[in-house]
Amino acid sequence: MSHTVSREIAMKRLYAETVGGVDSLEDALEQSEREALSEEDALFSDRLYEGVHAHIEEIDNEISAHAKDWSIGRIAKVDLSILRIAVYELLYESGIPVGATVNEAVELAKEFGGEKSSGFINGVLGAVAKVH
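-> structure tokens emitted (132 positions)
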């Protein structure tokens, strides 16, 4: 397993909350049809998920500041979940290379977002990365 799946699971949990549900790590993993996460990857996924919750106001402020002409409420829920995780990583996970964070978020957007999601997410994260 890798941090890629950890990010996917954290994103799915955030998305489920956003649309009115609550998924545990195990529920999101089962819905992803993935093998069990290693302990390290499960801890990383939980850290992302909990980190977003702990810093949601700062994260949403960053997204709002760099998502030109888009309010938080107008951003597709999947895209918002991906952005929140990636912005959390950019601001609070200093050991992860910026390029890896942005690339992983773009790949999640290609898999789970809309047709223009990957470009939108890449642009927002690029702008956030420039100032941090």
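The helical segments are 3-18, 25-31, 39-54, 56-66, 77-92, 98-112, 117-131.
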